[in-house]
Amino acid sequence: MSRSTTPSHDAESTVTLSIDGTDVSVPEGTTLLDACGGKGCGIPTLCYGDTITPKNACRVCMVEVEGSRVLVPSCSRQAEQGMVVRTRSQRVDHARKMVLEFLGSSVDLSLTDHITEWNAEYGADPGRYGADAQTVAQPVKIDNDLYVRDYAKCILCYQCVDACGEQWQNSFVIDIAGRGFAAHVSTENDVPLPDSACVYCGNCIQVCPTGALMFKTEHDMREAGSWQPDHQTTTDTICAFCGVGCNLTLHVQDNTIVKVSSPPDSPITHGNLCIKGRFGFQHAQNRPDET
Predict the structure, then answer these.
(1) Pseudo-torsion of CA 219, 222, 223, 225, nearest 10°?
(2) What pLDDT, on the 0 to 100 scale, is given for residue 132?
(3) Domain assignments of the chain as residue spans, ordered by start
(4) Which fold has domain 13-134?
(5) CA–CA distances in Å: residue 55 to residues 76, 135, 145, 249
(6) Quick one: CATH architecture of 147-285?
(7) What pTM was computed for the model?
């Protein structure tokens, strides 16, 4: 389940473009987002992941290209020779504000990284659409002991679909069903996960940007008010279940492993694990009953 996500470029095949008034030379085939510095460069991203080919679904990373009739998604548009790009302009800022408001008024983005600062930066006020615009009133799906699905937080970014499908796991358990406002992530015939072909690799959790997919341990701790990410530490280690050598990142709170992820830049896993690597950590912390 490993796949290189870094394109191979001829070192001499470069293009030079202008980004916010500065000339930048990058390898041919580089996306505008990567040319600007990649994830965390200041351009907001939601449906973009480190290991998934973007679907251009969220439209919050749009930038302005001189000569283009419409704004273009920086996560997938490739840099071209002589291109003039503006990552901030009245048009760009207005588009991002509207997208943040549309998403924030219809789904719960409370667990989405950077959403508060983005709303402040672009003056987005999702509440101005009123409570009637919200579609978050749906129950959390808890049908297994490993992870939960809270689609009130889902922005239909397709990352979980692609991680489960042809880009990584090739299980094809989930897809987008319905159209328009009825569109939603679903198993085949909307059956519970235990009745589906799900192998519980949890790679969909790894790529979810909004907390719609979550470890059951995290969900239960959040419900109990004991989830404290600021008090958690992370430790990188190697999975001991087989000889592949998958990289694990253990998230520990109060000397207890609360969840497991994998580094997206790992040459072995690229952020992906199997059920044992992601969920099989309880044996490492079984303690004799205290009497």
Answers:
(1) 160
(2) 63
(3) 13-134, 147-285
(4) Ubiquitin-like (UB roll) (3.10.20)
(5) 8, 23, 30, 27
(6) Single Sheet (2.20)
(7) 0.83
